[in-house]
Structures are given as C-alpha cells and as structure tokens.
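User: structure tokens for this one?
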Amino acid sequence: PSTHGLYFEKGRIYLSMKDTTAAENNFDMYIKADSTSPIGWSAKALVKIQQNNYDEAYRCYTKAIKLKTTYAGDYINRGIINVEKKNYREALSDYSQAIKMEPKSMNAYMNRAILRANLGDDNNAYSDFKKVLELDSSVTEARYSLAMLNIKLRKYKDAISDYNEILK
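Assistant:
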C-alpha cells in the first residue's frame, strides 16, 4: 500500500482503540498526502463526531461529498448532523442521496422515515418504514413506528397486525 494509505490504516486502528487524537493526526497526514481523496475527510469527520464537534464533522463530510465520495454513510452521517442543526430539508436531501447511492441502505431509509414522521409527512414516512421492513422484517422500531402511523392514518387493522408481528 501507499505511504498515505498506511496513515489511513493507522488512523482506523487508533480510532478502534478510542484514541481520537492519534486517529485524527494520522487522518490529517493522509489528507496532507492526498487532499483530493474523500476517504481522509470522511474518516476525520467520524473522529470529529466522536469528539462531539459536529460543526467540524459537518465541514469534513461536506468536503468528502464535494470530492465525490462513494460512501453513502457520509450522506447519512451529515444528514444526522443536519437534523441536530434543524436543517431538515438538507437532511432529507442527504438521506435521499444516500439511498440513490445505496438503494438497500436500511439506515438511510430508517433515518429518513423518522424525520418524515416527525415533520408530519406521514405518507412518505409510511413508505420508508415499509421499505425498511421489506429489507429486514425484524426491525422492531420500524414495525412499531409503522403501527403508530397506521393508528394516525386510521388503518386500525394494519396497526393491530403490526403489533401482533412485534409480539411474535
């Protein structure tokens, strides 16, 4: 592997050891060696999230995205930060982009469904929760949220069916 690739790998090891300072130093060395690679920025953003520095994490994810990241998780994580900052339209856009990149991303569908439900976009939230369950029928949180939406939408038989599934 390339020298800068080794910085990335060392950074990942430090991150797994919860040493965010050493991880960030190595990711910075990676970025210094190849500032056009989205991977270094994405990794640094993850460190910043672990350090509870959401503004800096947002900046790093945005940089990775501008550099044409191929990792849907960059959009999902930036979407989560956007929700925290109450930038709901941007968050929905990030989750939708993640789904375009990775059509079977349960995390992207689940995050988008929760946000849509919280915003009162019930029909689209319903569709997203259904998609989560299509991808994995054992996701209890999605099933429960769907049941709650079914009650709100007055689909009582469907809600009872959802609750029965959870009880199984």
